[in-house]
Design goal:
262 residues; alpha/beta; Aminopeptidase; seven-stranded mixed sheet; 7 strands; 15% strand; Formiminoglutamase; HutG_amidohyd; N-FG_amidohydro
Amino acid sequence: MTDWLTVERGAAPLIVSVPHAGTDIPSPHDAGMRSVALARRDVDWNVDRLYAFARALDATVIRTAISRSVIDVNRDPSGASLYPGQATTGLCPTTTFMGESLYEDGREPDEAAIAARRATYFDPYHAAIAAEIARLRRDHSPIVLYDAHSIVGEVPRLFEGRLPQFNIGTNDGQSCDPALAIAVAAACPEPKVINGRFKGGWITRHYGRPERGVHAIQMELAIRGYADEAAPDRWDAARAAPMQATLRGVLKACLDFAKGRA
């Protein structure tokens, strides 16, 4: 564990990755930014708190305190788009989801800055995931890697209309056994969708190798299910409790899948 990377180890065949709940923008990465508040706008607010119960299930939890606006550890490090032809943000974002510029003109991170951020934050985060996969695979086959996210329900630049509450991504069925997606969906009330607008990011796509016993799945929640989207940074334990109960069922479904296939 470092001051920005937390790995809480469990023995169960389940890893919960929380790549976008971080809010830290340490110097010098704030240089040139129009506003630190703007740079924090697209945080997956309080997702780490939302899944705090995961440790009681003996799951391994990996999370970063670094803002996705510094570097997005759920993007292809080559810079290739995960959604060709659709609006998205990159490895070191220069705009918000709404298309607002994060940096003053001409002060966006250059190739050297991006490489440094990758070495400092991206690579260690993924080294941690790879190490925990290897550790758990020594004792379990299969294991589940669950990538936890949230987003406001209406982002016209990214998608039309209102996002379903539960958005399950499996890279169009390539990152996990279909039975896992079915079990996760069964634990979620409506409205829900599998492989809708969000099919899974780099973490799901890169590590999901069902033929090798690693089943990766992404959950993108609409924030309205656990917080006020007008003030998503405010944690309300009472409001979040029903969502946590549902998500407990989701993670238990992941564990039941892994143990049932052992």
